[in-house]
Sequence to fold (143 residues):
Amino acid sequence: MIRPQINQALVPAPSRIALPWLKRLLRAIEKRLRLRGIWTLSIAFVDHRTMRRLNLTYRDRGRVTDILSFAGVGDGQSLGELVLAWPYVRDEAKRNKKSLKEELALLLIHGVLHLVGYDHETARDASKMLPLQEKILQDFLKR
Fold:
């Protein structure tokens, strides 16, 4: 079971993420990945400036990105932290003609896959990660 810890301080009140929706999404991820045990997952929403600074500090890229994943410490309980640039996510949903929830679900799935070891830096890695990401998303959206 993944237990979310959410920091939504920078998210406008009407757009706050409903906990039941998030728990359903995390259950879909757990099921597909066959995750066992109890894990905590920290999810933080930040502004563009904060995301640019984090991306520069940890990835040496001085631009805004939609999501960053930080693996948990080796305590066996923390899956890690996902940091999302809320304004970027909102704008990306509009550009992709998706609902905000669908865009957010896609990014959260993507982030958790990184936390459990998936990557897409090479074509081979991407051929494993991206179809799995899409399968989890489609399973979740069907519910």
Notes: Helices lie at 19-33, 48-59, 86-95, 100-115, 123-142.
